[in-house]
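pinned: reference chain
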Amino acid sequence: MKNILITGGAGFIGTNLALQLIDKGYSVTVLDNLSPQIHTKESTLLASIKDKVNFIQGDVRNISDWETALKNQDAIIHLAAETGTGQSMYEISKYVDVNIQGTAHLLDYLTNEQHAIKKVIIASSRAIYGEGKYTCTKHGDVYPLARVDEDLLQKDFNVKCPICHDTVTLELTDEESKIHPTSIYGITKQNQEQMIMVTCKALNIPAVAFRYQNVYGPGQSLSNPYTGILSIFSTRIKNGNNLSIFEDGKESRDFVYIDDVVDATILGLEKEEANGEVFNVGSGVGTTVTTVAELLKENYGADIDIQITGNYRLGDIRHNIADLVKIKEKLGFKSKVTFAEGLQKFTNWVNTQNVETDNYETSILELKEKGLYK
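pinned: its structure tokens
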């Protein structure tokens, strides 16, 4: 395989992946609609690849753009998607249209047209698991449902056993864990993954799904108030605004550095052992949101307050930490960058960037108006 198409390739993951593939001798084509929510007018992400790739400004919702982009390609890495969990709960048609219908156009083409595609990689998400895997003292391994308003209103943010409603203990979520997303975004990613895996199997095209955890690092959008907690917090700090933390601040995420994500994705492209498989991609370590806020404040030397609000967003999960045994055993992947190291690299980069307008309060107002923020 020599010619690689990356959809959403002018985004954060896509540009880093494209540059690494080019260094390895691949020829890269990028299809991206340059969404203004992610890309500023002077997009440094696009500038980093523009002269090194075949760039096509187009949209996965347009069949003609797929036809143009797929010519003479050997493999597809499908990253293009709407990605904000909270935003997905009130822009439902848009998320379904881009994430599901856009993928359907690709699969229609692969099924009905002549092509040379030898592998498809789909960017899935940890969001498909919902709350993921836990242990109940009475019922063993359980896969809790979404937390309910009655508990959250009482400031009880803990995850409950779906059988007895006792508080449960967090476990690492493996690929065999039950899939039941708690947001429209998660539902669309589940659909994307299943559509790709089922159709490509029927067409005898090797496919690989990567369930990425919270990807971060230099280059991620600092202007998008809907996704990326490190970016959102950084932009608020740079504007001299205090940080408001949902729930009790003990909710945690598995942060995985961009270089590790690129390495995992290329392993999936190049290794036959990946064919037909789904893999978690993360660090395997959970970090609380309060810890994130405190480390950012320290790294920036900022004189701001960190406020634990007790508010919450419907659709948010409490925890999710990846079990990485499968990707280590099958592909030899191991996360190399610790969160402390990666965060230092990220904040050093942010310090070189222009301060973006802080639109966070606007995004919260939108959630409040829809009854999704309490």
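why pinned: The chain has two domains: 3-133+172-369, 134-171. The chain has 13 helices and 15 strands.
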